[in-house]
């Protein structure tokens, strides 16, 4: 049976220390801490224990439900993840499962990209609790492309270096990093090629995805998270992207990603596999031991069947058969894999040196606001001048608006009245009517601003939870 849904009033954070669980950790508010950083000396180990996640855990109560917008009304809480625990070290780590099993939710939680309300559990990095600024210390590649389509790959990577690297990194060092990333990702042949738009032909889908990876790789992070890195790619291109990630993992990085039914040539690149079904963990271990484990549970893979397809079919079949999913969950909890994770959990929770390494300070962005403004304006100018259709549309809109405004004063008689009464009289307006028009305009403007504010609030809520 699944654990009951935790009360939405609970405000525990998976990135804060649970004082009751740390028996040897006393009050630390008087200590001077050093912020945790993910640098080249880091092992890149990520551990998580007892992760529960409830969607809509924080509700916004509306006093007038009949007139409230739909996004302000209370929604029923739904538990997405149930007590997940695991450990990721250097290598390739795949999170797999059927649609809606919680893959992306777990990935976002580990990367500190989820709203903390509705979360409980603990996350460790190299044996220390992950700070609230953890998302600035790791790389995260989203499913959709985030690169500018009118810039070249080199310009996109340089923009990421300029906007995100600390101020103490010189321009020469940034250029060297860009060159190294291009070399590591095998993008030398297309580095100076425009990414491409719907109307302008550019690089291929695989090169575009590798460029997105390079946007994060430019920061030299030790830990990387990727959400469905092969989505929208053909089999050969997906193989190249995953092979590129495998090469990065061999350089000592921790690559954690969600993926849906990869082909066998990609599956062989995985070091570990984590299987989720309906928010519960059913396997967390070596990829090479996956088929042997499920054969012990009574599920045999045919000789020429893809292991990734096989396990997904097993999970879907277990969801349809009463009691089958529960049996798989119990089998995993009794397995040596789960016992090993619990042993690691015990060792980390009783570490008496935890308070020395723990930091509650948050890493702030190291680049100034003016530098960000400068580089964003520079990129916007390049996008504008390299997109003729955009320039043409802006010119046409400006001309049309100018003509509409000019029609108001077309064929008016000249007047020297400083108050403009003759002009208003010529167009059939008096001062009272003119003032009413301004009041209506002001009211319409305030309504527009209010609608934009409501849309902004909704977008902020979506951004926090996705």
TrEMBL record:
Key words, A-Z: ATP-binding, Membrane, Nucleotide-binding, Transmembrane, Transmembrane helix, Transport
Main location: membrane
Domain of life: Eukaryota
InterPro entries assigned: AAA+_ATPase, ABC_transporter-like_ATP-bd, ABC_transporter-like_CS, ABCG_dom, ABCG_transporters, P-loop_NTPase
Pfam families: ABC2_membrane_7 (PF19055), ABC_tran (PF00005)
Subcellular location: Membrane
Membrane-crossing residue ranges in chain numbering: 389-410, 441-459
Domain ABC transporter: 62-303
Membrane topology type: Multi-pass membrane protein
GO molecular function, one term: ATP hydrolysis activity
GO CC field: apical plasma membrane
Family membership: Belongs to the ABC transporter superfamily. ABCG family. Eye pigment precursor importer (TC 3.A.1.204) subfamily.
Protein name per its UniProtKB record: ABC transporter domain-containing protein
Organism: Rotaria socialis
């Amino acid at each position: 049976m699944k654990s009951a849904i935790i009360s939405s009033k609970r405000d525990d954070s998976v990135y804060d220390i649970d004082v009751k669980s740390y028996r040897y950790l006393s009050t630390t508010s008087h200590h001077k801490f050093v912020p945790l950083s993910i640098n080249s000396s880091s092992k890149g180990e990520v551990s998580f224990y007892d992760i529960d996640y409830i969607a809509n855990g924080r509700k916004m109560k509306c006093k007038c439900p009949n007139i409230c917008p739909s996004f302000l009304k209370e929604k029923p809480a739904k538990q997405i993840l149930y007590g997940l625990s695991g450990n990721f070290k250097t290598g390739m780590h795949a999170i797999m499962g059927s649609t809606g099993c919680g893959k992306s939710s777990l990935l976002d939680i580990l990367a500190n990209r989820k709203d903390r309300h509705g979360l409980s559990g603990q996350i460790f990095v190299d044996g220390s609790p992950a700070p609230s600024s953890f998302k600035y210390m790791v790389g995260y590649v989203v499913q959709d492309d985030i690169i500018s389509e009118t810039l070249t790959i080199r310009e996109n990577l340089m923009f990421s270096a300029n906007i995100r690297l600390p101020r103490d990194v010189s321009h020469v060092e940034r250029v060297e990093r860009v060159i190294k990333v291009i070399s590591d990702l095998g993008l030398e042949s297309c580095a100076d090629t425009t990414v491409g738009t719907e109307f302008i032909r550019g690089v291929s889908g695989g090169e575009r995805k590798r460029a997105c990876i390079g946007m994060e790789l430019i920061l030299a992070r030790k830990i990387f998270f990727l959400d469905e890195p092969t989505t929208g790619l053909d089999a050969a291109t997906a193989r190249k992207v995953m092979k590129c990630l495998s090469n990065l993992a061999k350089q000592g990085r921790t690559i954690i990603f969600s993926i849906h039914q990869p082909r066998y040539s990609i599956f062989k690149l995985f070091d570990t596999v984590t299987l989720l079904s309906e928010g519960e963990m059913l396997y967390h271990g070596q990829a090479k031991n996956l088929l042997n484990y499920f054969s012990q549970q009574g599920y045999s893979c045919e000789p020429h069947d893809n292991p990734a397809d096989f396990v997904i079919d097993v999970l879907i079949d277990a969801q349809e058969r009463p009691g089958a999913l529960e049996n798989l969950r119990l089998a995993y909890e009794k397995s040596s894999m789960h016992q090993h994770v619990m042993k690691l959990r015990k060792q980390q929770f009783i570490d008496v040196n935890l308070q020395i390494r723990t930091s509650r300070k948050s890493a702030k962005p190291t680049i100034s606001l003016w530098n960000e403004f400068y580089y964003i304006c520079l990129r916007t100018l390049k996008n504008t001048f390299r997109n003729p259709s955009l320039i043409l549309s802006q010119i046409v809109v400006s001309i049309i608006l100018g003509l509409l405004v000019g029609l108001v004063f077309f064929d008016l008689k000249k007047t020297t009245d400083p108050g403009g009464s003759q002009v208003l009289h010529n167009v059939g307006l008096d001062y009272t009517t003119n003032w009413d028009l301004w009041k209506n305009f002001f009211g319409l403007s305030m309504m527009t601003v209010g609608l934009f504010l409501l849309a902004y609030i909704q977008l902020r809520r979506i951004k926090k939870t996705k």
